[in-house]
Amino acid sequence: MDISIFPLKNFPIINPGESLTEIIVRELKKIDLKNHDILVIAHTIVSKAENQVYNLNEITPSPLAIHIGTIQDKDPRKIEVILRNSKEIVRMNDRVLITSSLHGFVCANSGIDQSNTAGNTVISLPIDPDLSARRIKKAIKENYGLDVAIIITDTFGRPLRVGTVNFAIGVAGINPLEDIRGSYDLFGYELRSTIIARADEVAAAAGIVMGQANEGTPVIIVRGVKYSTNEASARDLIRNQEKDVFR
Amino acid sequence: MDISIFPLKNFPIINPGESLTEIIVRELKKIDLKNHDILVIAHTIVSKAENQVYNLNEITPSPLAIHIGTIQDKDPRKIEVILRNSKEIVRMNDRVLITSSLHGFVCANSGIDQSNTAGNTVISLPIDPDLSARRIKKAIKENYGLDVAIIITDTFGRPLRVGTVNFAIGVAGINPLEDIRGSYDLFGYELRSTIIARADEVAAAAGIVMGQANEGTPVIIVRGVKYSTNEASARDLIRNQEKDVFR
Fold first, then answer.
1. pLDDT digits (tens, 9 = 90+) for B192-229
2. Which CATH architecture has domain B54-122?
3. Mutating which of B117, B158, B184 best tests the A interface, going by the most A Cβ atoms within 10 A?
4. What's the ipTM?
């Protein structure tokens, strides 16, 4: 089983409110898309198309946002947007603000991002990344008759390890977890506790090509991955707080 | 930039004490290896070749190992091997034993693994995975005249997220971190805090092909990745404890 990973080249800049599904469907004409391909999509273009863009000039920071902004030497209006998109502050000091996003993803700043955004604006994660993924999957099915999987991603830092990696925050047509418990290894031992985070593996792989800087390749095709197509949510990747010894 | 990922097929089972470098050099004749390819190697075959195999019948558990074994309903001799390969117990309850390995990798059981090991034995991580990687890189250079990168991996669970993913624990010929601070995004914003964990991305990507069960593909070729070749250590991926808000 060989895997190939390649970008949808010269993908246009997405402006707030544009139809991302239409643009993706149009851009896919440039390649020979196949059944079972996985489209990995940077959340930034999904958020922009869905108008999850905040003009900081229109934001009034709360006292909490002002205080955190002072401690961290950051724009309190950006902190305010982060707090509005958080349901919990998980860790905080004078450098980092680790929150649980409204979806439950634990990451820095609830994924609020200044990069790749024009002017004095920030963007948040999509409101329902699974739903965004399902819409794109459906449009591809309708236009090309192909069954593909969609993974919407963001790059997060990680506890214990240095450096950022791309993670799945929304999926359609792929089960983000692959449960191989009950299968046997080379010597006949039953693998007792292995659930593979397939969607995170694919997100990380696509991240190699996606880059973060001005390369303009927010849509990546990953071909050749074996995956389970039963419907699920990227939220299945969120570890239950009670079971997490690091929370 | 397209990436392709494929296994070194029909890789033989490695027995303790065999020369892994010789076997890898021989098996590479089957493919058209290229300059700048990355070989991703499951640590299990490295550990076996380096005799990091413990026969549980020869292990006498300490009182601490017996106690933990009782709490967790696990073989105290296996716990003893874990403790001998740990420099710190980071988290512990009746289900999990999260330790810092002697190298500093924080993971379950210091990477001690019963799977894919014959008989009543367990295997540990390689003593110096970077050194193991450098040896293999050197042998490939001598035999094929090619400059490749080596990443030795293990699958770890993760704080915050469900499911296991493949991580880099030893590298040669590749800087595991790519620092893109100072580069600019599409709108001219300087990316202020982005260090990409390139070796972990590549490890995760190879993990898709490597599988965990009886597929017998412990060596994966990843082709087409841009990476920095300046010498470094996989330990650079370990977050400094003082900077880690989750420790």
1. 668 999 999 999 999 999 975 545 799 999 999 999 99
2. Alpha-Beta Complex (3.90)
3. B158
4. 0.94
The CATH class that applies to domain A4-51+125-238 reads alpha beta
Residues 158-187 of A with CB under 8 A from B: 158-167, 176-178, 180, 183-187
Yes or no, beta carbons of A165 and B196 under 8 Å apart: yes
CA dihedral B184, B190, B195, B198 (to 10 degrees): -10
What is the CATH class of B4-52+125-238?
alpha beta
Amino acid at A116: N
CA angle centred on A167, ends B111 and A3, rounded to 5°: 80
Residue B195 phi/psi, 5° resolution?
Answer: -115, 120
- Region B57-63: mean pLDDT is 97
For residue range A105-150, what is the model confidence (pLDDT) as tens digits? 999 999 998 766 667 899 999 999 999 999 999 999 999 999 999 9
* Chain B residue with Cα closest to A242: B160
Between chains, do B204 and A200 touch, taking CB under 8 Å as contact?
A: yes
CB within 8 A of A31, min separation 6: which ones?
Answer: A6, A8, A221
* Residue of A45, A175, A185 to mutate when probing chain B, most B C-beta within 10 A: A185
Inter-residue contact A9 to A217 (CB < 8 Å): yes
CATH 3.90.1660.10-classified regions of chain A: 54-122
Q: What is the rounded distance in angstroms from the CA atom of residue B102 to the CA atom of residue A193?
A: 24
Residues of chain A within CATH 3.30.1330.100 domain(s) are 4-51+125-238
- With H, G, I as helix, E, B as strand and everything else as coil, classify residue A89: strand
Contact A204 B165 (CB under 8 A): yes
Taking the C-alpha atoms of residue B6 and residue A204, their distance in angstroms, rounded to an integer, is 17
Distance of CA B44 to the CA centre of its chain: 9
User: How far is A80 from chain B, CA to nearest CA, in Å?
Assistant: 20
> Is residue B4 within 8 Å of residue B223, measured between CB atoms?
yes
